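Marked as duplicate of an earlier ticket. Keeping the data here for the record.
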Amino acid sequence: MRRTSRPTDVPAGPPQPGNLPHELNRFVGRAAELTALASALEAGRLVTVTGVGGVGKSRFAAHAAARAPRSLCPDGVWRVELANVRLPELVEYTLAEALGLTDHTTRAPRQVLVDHLAERRLVLVLDGCEHLVDACASLVRDLLRAAPGLRVLAVGRRPLAVEGEQVFPLAPLPPADAAELFADRAAALLPGFRLDGHTLVDVLEVCRRLDGLPLAVELAAGRLRVLSPPQLMERLDDRFRLLRGGGRDVLSRHQTLRTTIGWSHELCTPQERLLWARLSVFSGSFDLEAAEYVCGGESLPADDVIDVLDELLAQSVVVREEARGEARYRMLDTVRAYGAEWLDALGDGRRMRRRHRDWYMGLATWCELDWFSPRQGEVASRIEAELPNLRAALEHCLTEPGEAHLGQYLAGTLWFYWAGCGRLSEGRHWLDRSVGLDVEFDDGDVCPGGDEDLEYAASRLKALWVLGYVAILQGDTVPALAALQECREEAERTGDATALAYAVHRTGCLALVSDDMPRAEDLLRTALSSYREIGELNSNVLMGQVELAMALAFQGDLAEAVALCADVRQVCEDHGERWTLAYALYVLAYAQWTEGGHAQARVLLDECLAIDHEFHDLLGTVLSMELLALVTAEEGDAAEAAVLQGAAARMWSSVGLPLFGSAYYNAPHELCETRARQSLGDARFAELARAGEQLEHDEAVFRALGRGGRRRAVATVPHPARPAEPVREKREPAASRTWKGGETAG
């Protein structure tokens, strides 16, 4: 919640939030429009910037929002890019992603957004609404009603038609500003270019003929690599006559933009046009390797893609951006849409979408293997960057006839991202959709038998146990049990030992959070034994060992619990695994606290919390926070313990049922609260807990880690004797599957 005041004993947090991108080149002109938009945004809570594609709506809105006074938006300015979102039901997930929200509960995404924004004062820039008008209008209406401090700056080609909306039509640039924009972009390409007596007249005429549309002007400036301004004028005249299209009812600006893009397309070589069309299958950004695989082939060898891509970059058809020190590329949506039309006209759209699907299925497969390695953090970042393309691949699989099994495989393979990086809600969305589909085969039957059909069935079994796992973490036990029971029964019927082991494992996890410790112990031991028999070793297997240790610790067997987690810790260090390591450290800290080792418990929890926060694992974060609160109370600082408990209480609202509704998990919480209340009194405890609830997520973690200096190093704890049958077998990574319908050549 937004804070209107802050207790003096609660320190200030990190800088004001926001996610507006940095401007990479100079913003030109529009001084009067910027002033007018600032006034409109101050006077009203919903302003929609409208205009033809290419008029510069997105850049203008972002630049204006960045200038908004702090008094208007003390909680920041947040931009949501919707151009790559194709499905209305993903609008809410995309908004939550842009706001950095992580929610593990079964609450509807809209309710999560309402709760988050209810008492905040911020500006939300919704960019690219035109193809999702109904979904955006409904969401904006609900958010504005529930959040009186919210202001929305929408960007699209038409209004949202929501009550109270102010429409701000954006006109093309006047001649002087358009010429200045042309000169600025031309000078970046050709140092020394300037408007003078030789160039001014021609540039003004070019800009006039392009109707002052910024996109058209920038594309034209990009052609100065090969054409002079007079030559630009000549070719514009030719291409306008050749490419002007549309009926009499089509706006001239629309015709002009299409002419501009079509003219740029005509100036491309055949290979450049082909790559432009093929790149249109990407959603969001992509890297060179993806472009080479997906777009290389007939008429465009993969080795030539880099050179052709370089030419498209030079012509501003493709935009280059940096991500984690690596070059990535994206196409403006209007340019991408033009390429998509050409791809369909070539009759090659379906094949290219299959190649796109194949690449991202392969990426997910290898990222799943790399998750159990020192590259775990890189995997999390890579999947985050590729999420729009993975969504496109999932949607293709779940809507293309005969590919449901591929969607099940992909949704299940991404378990490490759904569970490990705070994406439970979206993962649940794809998993529910995938398991709800029957896999159809050539003869129309469903899974009639045979090796290939069993392989297809394995995809569904994986999606089922992952669905059960995600539902458990959300606290949604009934669907979890149903999915795991179906997985277990089908795995037994088909003889799939791997799926059976995972189903038994996750059923044991369900028993653990349901307080049935003897059953949890029995199921988890059975699953771990099965893993050893089939040679399975990965983060899931180690997590099963941690969960068994937790069940034993709750039953009083600390010695074996510590031995199991010490073994997990060693295996994690051997393999560079950090996500599961955090949970092992949590159990070791629990054992240290139980035996009075408060200082050692704190060091372990510091590392645990730092890792969980790094991976955006909200469940691990809040469990660590709860135990840190108790350790803090045991150390004699009841006031700080109360603040941490308040911060944890706020986090649980986004995770699910606090402490799973488990008496075992709740016992430390109750003990901490009792001791803090006894020391502080009920009134002071409640005051400090409320102060903790006011802390933003990052603030709470920063505060917990900052106590006594930020101690990030893992404690040196003697490793007790290993269990009699340690889970240490290794296996070589399997090669990626080659699916029916997949393609490896152009």
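See parent ticket for discussion. Residues 1-15, 238-255, 441-449, 708-746 have pLDDT under 50 and may be disordered.
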